Amino acid sequence: MRIFDAHCDTASEMYEKNQSFAKNSLHIDFERMKKYDAYTQVFAVFTSPEKRGNAREYEEKVIDLFYEQMGKNSICVCKNYSDFKEAKSPYRAFLSIEGAEGIEKEDDLLRLKQRGVFMIAPVWNFRNKIACGVMEEEDTGLSEFG
């Protein structure tokens, strides 16, 4: 059986709970991935509201840990569709951002692309530089920057 899971918070949770990807109590780990013929996981970097003040720094730390753990477990990190198609390993990962709290300017988009972020979900629940979230009283949609 082949699995493609388009979202999990395991990257941020590994960082928060100091757990490894080899085996953990989170949404997915390498031990569970190996039970399938092929498994692709989109890992979201989620910045919780209490971390919003230093979101960029937090994202960088989680991304560093993500690459460290994927490398230790022979997971192919895909930065685009070509990487996915050409991967030699049946175990693949994409990196995404859930809530663009760490994006303050256009250079941040380039920084995240260079770090291998494949996808950005602009908002979680609260307003940021890109858009308004569902928990805001006034729905203002995308910002001018967004």
Sequence-ordered SSE layout with sheet pairings:
Blueprint: E1 2-8, H1 10-17, H2 30-33, E2 38-46, H3 55-72, E3 76-77, H4 81-86, E4 91-98, H5 106-114, E5 117-121
Parallel strand pairs: 1-2, 2-4, 3-4, 4-5
Helix pairs in contact: 1-3
Provide an overview of this structure.
With 146 residues, the protein is of the alpha/beta class. It has a single domain (2-121), classed as TIM Barrel, CATH 3.20.20.140. 31% of the residues lie in helices and 21% in strands. Strands 1, 2, 3, 4 and 5 form a five-stranded parallel beta sheet that branches. Strand 4 (91-98), helix 5 and strand 5 (117-121) form a beta-alpha-beta unit. Helix 1 (10-17) crosses helix 3. It is globular, with a radius of gyration of 16 Å. The chain starts with a strand and ends in a 25-residue tail after the last strand. The mean pLDDT is 95.
